[in-house]
Sequence to fold (261 residues):
Amino acid sequence: MFLKGKTALVTGSTSGIGLAYAQALAKEGANIVLNGFGDADEIEAMRSELAGISGGTALYSGADLTDEAAIADMFAYAAAELGGVDILINNAGTQYVAKVEEFPVDKWNLIIALNLSAAFHTSRLAIPYMKKQGWGRIIATASAHSLVASPGKSAYVAAKHAIAGLTKTLALETAEHGITVNAISPGYVWTPLVEGQIPDTMATRNMTREEVINDVLLKAQPTKEFVTPDQVASMALYLCRDEAKAITGANLSMDGGWSVQ
Ligand code: NAD
Fold:
């Protein structure tokens, strides 16, 4: 349990990849701050399971990450209960698929706020404590879309390219403080986010569900296999280890070869 005594805040951890990060970090003894939306009873069951796995503390914050005041309140809560955040995983994100001339302005604003600006706010609030500790880990779930584009995803691709840039800058600013800042860029991972975009893609491209899965999603992924949330979480766990301390500012692809084409 190499993370015993450390606290990890994982944004968007009530589902999908974020929940897998929380479970992997808890297995190594980390205290967890869970965040995201969902059914209150289900979230409480996740929180109490995580506390059981880690043998430490698991807290839940329902902060809406598009609201910078709510993000500040979440950090104040983590600091009051657990001292501060040693490991920050910027994971919450959403998707919307439409051609740019039809892209709803409110969806653009939501995606930039949640997939990009939230990571600026969490990072600026986390780094002072990490600097004081002389240790910290910041990890973003970026995407293959931080490196390549797809039609219909202007806001998502813009936000994910930007988070790769933010990662590089934060890595340089923290390099002498025992803090590493990295992005993990998965290809398609089978989660509710991917499932949720299938109907829009069916409509945009006039395809069946099977055609979207095989000819759109997995078409770009040379392995023809979805990435799993556990694979992504195991990379984050590795980045938390001391032997990974030379890895900073990296954008680590886990996309079955998608972005090399
Ligand atoms: P998901 O939809 O399963 O989970 C998203 C999480 O974010 C949930 O916990 C949700 O409650 C939370 N969330 C949504 N809006 C929020 C808000 N305003 N404030 C706080 N929390 C909010 O999605 P996922 O597939 O696990 O995606 C997680 C991350 O991984 C995203 O950044 C996504 O872009 C990225 N990603 C996903 C894939 C994929 O194929 N699934 C691939 C590459 C990158």
